[in-house]
Write a sequence for this structure.
């Protein structure tokens, strides 16, 4: 599970809502309605998000424009996949009903299931 | 030197030997909730022994020793003699540095774990808010149904407590099976299983998995599942066994070698237990009592007693040695 910081989350919420490429200036202007921020701070956050693969960027003239690499729905589904795969779950935050099994373990469990399905079980 | 060596010996022997012994005990699997306490007590005891071993080396040089001796109207030299080391000042300094380093590591790992857990919690909360299905009627007030193609269920404890069930699980399970799964998850929250796993994981990370702490964390993770299974009613055990298999077989195969969570063997064990009746034998009750009131307190108090015993012996001697 890729945990986003609060500013990263605020930036992503805008990119997901706009669903189009946006420049650092556009993101900054919108964020400034909530809190004071420097241009370089937003630029660094977007750069980090690009490095993490959360946003894509294209060069327009001298500046980059950014857009979400995945839609909010796809992002959510991927994050849920990570939850099920146990990614980033250290320290007992999540307790899963069952973990994913290896193919060999699944074979063994299939035998158990057949036993359970047998008429006299 | 003796108290320091004894405490070090306690950590090095009791930790690994204890974990091997406990892992082999089938009886403990019958009382998983109590066994969790035992495993946590063992790991905690190892950490206490290590911290106190360093302190024992430093004791002769600590002014506190004289103060304590005064308090008991005992001779400070007699008490300090019990903790004296051939290493002198160097050994004392080394001891206090090692103790402080271990305490600092515990604090550092604990804070890091707390920070990442907060982050994971808030990310998970947002995830559940977005993925929660709008159209379906809620399964229960405390259960979130999220859209996902794999049958799964989980819960988060601590600052934000959630029980989450995927739409695929809701479709694959019967109403009574789903009810049993939710009951299992509620038991995790009610019995504070997250705290137990967090504690085991904290000690494992702080000691880099050494001295049995890794095995302890894995055992605690398995045992909390067994304990939550035991929380469902006798009538629901069959439904829960089937739900375990449906969910395990319905999920995608694991592609990586993961150290986290249950293995196929542990799942098979859960199914086998659930197919049998829940039995709380008289022997099991006595074992529970013995562990909670005797073994766990002894594990925690043992290192403290080892540290204090020579000092008390010195204080009781009544004679003040001549020091040159």
């Amino acid at each position: 599970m890729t945990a986003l910081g609060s500013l990263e989350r605020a930036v992503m919420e805008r990119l997901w809502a706009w669903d189009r490429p946006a420049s650092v200036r556009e993101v900054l202007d919108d964020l400034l309605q909530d809190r004071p921020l420097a241009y370089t701070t937003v630029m660094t956050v977007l750069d980090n998000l690009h490095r993490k693969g959360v946003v894509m960027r294209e060069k327009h003239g001298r500046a980059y424009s950014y857009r979400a690499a995945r839609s909010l729905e796809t992002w959510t589904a991927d994050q849920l996949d990570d939850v099920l795969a146990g990614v980033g779950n250290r320290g007992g935050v999540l307790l899963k009903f069952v973990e994913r099994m290896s193919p060999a373990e699944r074979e063994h469990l299939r035998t158990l299931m057949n036993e359970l399905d047998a008429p006299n079980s | 030197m003796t108290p320091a060596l004894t405490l070090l010996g306690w950590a090095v022997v009791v930790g690994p030997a204890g974990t091997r012994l406990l892992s082999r005990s089938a009886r403990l699997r019958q009382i998983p909730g109590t066994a969790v306490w035992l495993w946590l007590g063992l790991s905690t005891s190892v950490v206490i022994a290590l911290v106190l071993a360093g302190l024992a080396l430093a004791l002769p040089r600590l002014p506190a020793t004289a103060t304590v001796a005064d308090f008991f109207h005992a001779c400070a030299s007699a008490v300090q003699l019990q903790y004296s080391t051939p290493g002198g000042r160097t050994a004392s300094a080394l001891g206090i540095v090692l103790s402080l380093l271990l305490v600092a590591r515990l604090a550092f790992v604990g804070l890091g774990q707390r920070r990442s857990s907060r982050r994971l919690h808030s990310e998970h909360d947002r995830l559940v808010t977005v993925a929660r299905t709008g159209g379906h009627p809620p399964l229960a007030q405390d259960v979130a149904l999220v859209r996902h193609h794999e049958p799964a269920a989980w819960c988060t404890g601590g600052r934000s407590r959630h029980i989450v069930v995927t739409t695929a699980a809701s479709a694959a399970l019967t109403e009574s099976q789903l009810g049993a799964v939710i009951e299992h998850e509620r038991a995790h929250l009610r019995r504070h299983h997250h705290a137990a796993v967090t504690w085991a994981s904290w000690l494992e990370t702080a000691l880099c998995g050494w001295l049995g702490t890794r095995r302890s964390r894995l055992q605690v993770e398995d045992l909390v599942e067994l304990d939550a299974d035991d929380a469902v009613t006798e009538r629901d055990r069959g439904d829960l066994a089937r739900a375990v298999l449906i969910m395990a077989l319905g999920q995608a195969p694991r592609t990586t070698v993961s150290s986290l969570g249950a293995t196929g063997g542990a799942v098979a064990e859960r199914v086998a237990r659930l197919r049998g009746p829940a039995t709380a034998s008289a022997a099991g009750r006595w074992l529970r009592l013995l562990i909670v009131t005797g073994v766990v307190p002894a594990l925690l108090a043992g290192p403290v007693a080892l540290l204090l015993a020579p000092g008390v012996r010195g204080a009781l001697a009544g004679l003040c040695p001549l020091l040159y």
In short: The first strand of chain B starts at residue 143 and ends at 146. The CA atoms of residues 174 and 221 of chain B lie 27 Å apart. DSSP finds 13 helices and three strands in chain B. The longest helix of chain B spans residues 88-131.
